[in-house]
Structures are given as structure tokens and as C-alpha cells.
Amino acid sequence: MCGNGTNETFYGDFNLRTFSAYKKASIVLILAIFLMYVFSMLGNLIIIVVVHVAPRLHTPMYFFLSNLSTQDVAYVSTILPKLLVIEITGETCISFLECFTQMFVFMGSAATEYYLLAFMAFDRYVAICLPLKYSVIMNKGVCTILALISWMAGFFNALLYVFLISHLSFCDSKSIQHFFCDMKALISLSCCDVTHMNNLMLTEVCVIGILLFAMILTSYAFIISTILKIKTLASRMKIFSSCSSHLTVVFLFCGTSMTIYLKPDSESSKELDMVLSLLYVAVVPACNPLVYTLRNQEVLSALKIKKNIFN
């Protein structure tokens, strides 16, 4: 609803800009998107299954990792198949319901990932800095509550934005300057005064995004301080290796997502937004399984055990 009190909300179809708006989609781009989608789905599903069936991985760290993989599967399967269809067929149309469903799942999953990454950092802090209290602090009940907070806070936040944005007036504008129904792109499409929406979005990114990111960095500052006090080099390297994978994911996801929502919007930055978005929408979910498995001996050992059983 616009500020003048007239409700002219648009309920028709939108058109996604995608990368094919500039030139005919090449087979290389289509193949790259397809491979990222396959790697994301297979890799994250393998993590979910292995963590579930391997008793040695029934720990808080892998409990949060399986939740992280679940939300990766959720939003990747919502965005990348549609992008593939558009790039292959050239049909950029997306319905109002499909668009807002896509935005809801993506926003909910992305917000949930911030919380999960913060709680994973807290888990590593307790395990390394307070090892004698670890089993008491990070018990099953606490982990379940933290996971529920992540999912509920993330998707309640997404529901709020979906409600607010769906009641904006889009008038005759139907072309979304993005390859998926991104919140920022939809807000800029409205012909209403959206100053309050932009202020809300900026405030939330600063308060929630930067705060959670700061909590993660603070946790790892204490962790690194503790690691440096360990006398043996082998022990220091082992602990640092287990934490570096988490930090890699944090910087990839938080760095790209916060850059998009904090930088000033301009017509010349639309394509940059799309490239940066592709990093955390497609590349990060595809990298997560590789980062957490190839650099983690416990997961690799569990995978080898399951392989031997089936053989």
C-alpha cells in the first residue's frame, strides 16, 4: 500500500533480468550453474545423511552443520532450478506467488544461516576455551533450543518482509533487476515511497548481520588466543584446522551478503549485485560440503566407514 492510502498492489507476473538479458546465455554459464546446483544438493544431502547415521558425529558441532546443510538445500533448490530454466529457455516470467515464495525461502534460509554460523562459532569457543564445561553448556537440550531459535528467527523475519513487500504497489513495473526475487530488487521496483522499507532493511542488516558477525569474530579471537597458548605445534595445527573451515564459510557468506545490502544502490551496480549474489546463492552452498568434509578427518572417516559397509 502506498503512502497515499490507495492500494494498487500488483498480483500479476514479474520478469527476471538474469544474465541472459545482456547476451545469449552461453553453454559455459549454463553448465557452471548446473554443476554448482548438483554439487550443492549432493554435497549437502550427503552431509545430512552421514551426520544422521554416524554415531561418532552425533555432537553439537555436526548437529549445527546438518542444520546448515538443510537450509542450503532449501534455498538452492528454490533459486537455481528456476535460473537454469530461464537461461536455457529464455523465458524470464515468474508468477507473483512463485516470486514471493522464492523470496520467503531465501530470506528465511539466509537469516537462519547467520544464526547457525554464530552458534557454531560459540560451540567452538566453548569446546576449545572451556573444554571441561563443554558437555554441560552444549548439551542436547541447549543445542536444540539454539537451532530452533535460528530457524524461527530467520523465517519469522522473512515472513515479516514478505508481508510488507507484498503490500507495496508495483504499478506497471514488472522487470526485476536480478536473477531471483531478491528483497532489495523488489523494493526498488515499487512506485511507492519505500524510504521506511530501506531504513528497516539497513537497520536490520546493521543490528542483526553485523552483530552476529561481530560475535563470530569475537569467539574466534578468544579461540586463537587459546590456541597460541598451546605448547605443541601439532596440537595447535589440529585445532586451527578444525576452526579454519568454519571461518572460510563465514567470510564467504557474510562478506558477500553484507556487501550487497550495505553498499549504496545505483543503476551501475545492478550487475555487480547479481555477480556477488551468485557467490552466496550458488558458490557458497557448493563450497560448504567441500570445506567441511575435505578438511575434516572425522567426516572423512565416517564416509570411509559407510563406504566399506556398502562394499
What secondary-structure arrangement, pairings included, does this model have?
Elements: E1 14-16, H1 27-53, H2 60-89, E2 93-94, H3 96-129, H4 134-137, H5 140-166, E3 175-176, H6 183-189, H7 195-228, H8 233-262, H9 270-294, H10 297-310
Parallel strand pairs: 1-3
Antiparallel strand pairs: 1-2
Question: What report would you give on this structure?
Answer:
The chain is an all-alpha fold. 75% of the residues lie in helices and 2% in strands. The chain is built from 10 helices and 3 strands. It has a 3-stranded mixed sheet. The N terminus and C terminus are likely disordered.
Unreliably modeled segments: 3-8, 307-311
* Largest beta-sheet characterization: 3 strands, mixed
Task: Provide the helix percentage.
Answer: over 70%
Tell me the Rg in angstroms.
21 Å
Structural class: mainly alpha
Count of runs of 4 or more consecutive helical residues: 10
* Overall residue-averaged pLDDT value: 82
The end-to-end span amounts to 61 Å
Order of helices and strands: EHHEHHHEHHHHH
How are the strands of the biggest sheet laid out side by side?
2-1-3
Describe the global form.
globular
Strand content: under 5%
Beta strand count: 3
Search tags:
single chain; 311 residues; mainly alpha; three-stranded mixed β-sheet; 3 strands
